[in-house]
């Protein structure tokens, strides 16, 4: 679809973005140009193509007030999406001049622009589990987590070593039966609440998606009780037992000693649970409650179990929130207000550990030292070496790559019998581990993020190797899978784009879907998801016998690209999807279709780079690596903040991308850069800027 207005581009090209455009007295000439060239499609008579009404732009300052629109202008010019093909081409020198001018305008307007606000956010299910585990120092999960698509069957995740072993054992619970001879996952009697779903083009930690219905609130309250009542919460399973639940030592004055002991335990517990120093009145309220329990004959263990159950169901535990600093009445500064040290500790813990801060972070926050750049840098390094970052590797890459889509992929049994294993198991169990192990390797060994696209190695087991070969003779390594790290000499293999998992989940049971694959590449690799198709565009029907005998998929899809309102998006996503047509519906390489026609993967990438083969396509992606780097960093930044990104985040993305292009592209370096960036260290507490009230972008 068309996402920007060609008439306005034509005006920009003719006007040359002169300095008069930025002045207030340019209003008359601007209106005249719009009237002559643009408003026929963008404002006149209520006609607004691309959702852009140029009659609303009265001056150059109106354009400066719309940075998202400026960003789009820069993008379509750089990618040669505009002027459209039917208009005269823009000379390269003039194009570069235009881009430089628009970027200067964009930088000017973004210097002090407010960050998007992050509202109060509830813990999602994954974070809740981890928070309870860390709060009570448990040795296992409190309930089963299907969010973890791959399970480590060996303790190989050791980021402090910076070295992955040559082989690992993993499993894939969502696609298999329970693992035999393994300790049950979850405490007895504890039932989890429903899994939180990914936001569209986002993650499951998005604050504006984590609502709390009355039914879910009731589930939380029941859950907190069942955790503390579970027989698995005991001295053997709980490393906090000694200071939290065990009887107090007998003292000469037992009454005073018991009261002091209770308050000491509560202060430590509440600081961890609420991620800040608890108010004395709060400690006292819980202490009185505990003493009331003891007065009725309850033991100290029973009283503390009751208190923990109450805390786990409280909003102060369930919600992360950031408020204006006390005494701050200057509302205009709240769009870029520095977070305090406790808020910083919580952001770090959520980002790297999907959990609550540990005592080290809280101690530094209480002392007001955590935000010191040197101390913050040291703490980030400590956290990145901590094995709790395994949760980041459990959570981020599977959502980034949208691998949950693979769970419902069911290739046709008759066409692809090798895909189905003994007892109904599917090869997708093994496919899902390949990109996740690659991501873990890049993280643990702190490799370049470009290794995610072109690593020179991969992880493989017998069944996955058999799938790539298109045969079923793979043995019976079904449930617990032994993966080995192998070097790659074939440029057709390796990286997250061309792995079997992605190729399978972007296909139907019987055929490939170039449009779906192209949309996946655009959204995941470049973080530029296409607009939804028009409602009146029918899906591509399954091919008739005559079509299968005569046409290629490219020929069958030609009708979609002929529609004027579809052409804009198809020009972007079709080359990305057709470039992958050599990979069949299960990722098996093919040179021809079933009807004997040659597979044609040729295209033009970013409206400027021609390619004829998959290898040439991958080489162009590496040549244009700044696009992947910026897209990947923007995914990470959105994940770290728990919100979508806005124009004010662009300078940080540009800075981190420039650093990566200059050689600082190791994954941990990128993660550290995000955790020390302006958006991460600032908050927006302006209540009038709520999510949903988004600036018009021109899309």
Report on the structure:
By secondary structure, the chain is mainly alpha-helical. Among the domains are: 6-110, no CATH class; 121-146 and 181-320, no CATH class; 147-180 and 401-491, no CATH class; 333-387, no CATH class. Helix content is 45%, strand content 5%. It contains 30 helices and ten strands. The protein has helices at 6-15, 27-37, 60-64, 67-78, 92-110, 125-136, 214-229, 241-244, 254-274, 280-295, 300-312, 315-318, 341-353, 359-366, 373-385, 390-400, 428-431, 433-444, 462-469, 500-505, 514-525, 545-550, 553-556, 558-562, 564-578, 614-623, 625-641, 650-661, 667-675, 678-681, and strands at residues 121-122, 151-152, 167-171, 319-320, 337-338, 457-460, 481-487, 603-605, 609-611, 682-683. The strands form four sheets. The protein has a four-stranded antiparallel sheet. The protein is globular.
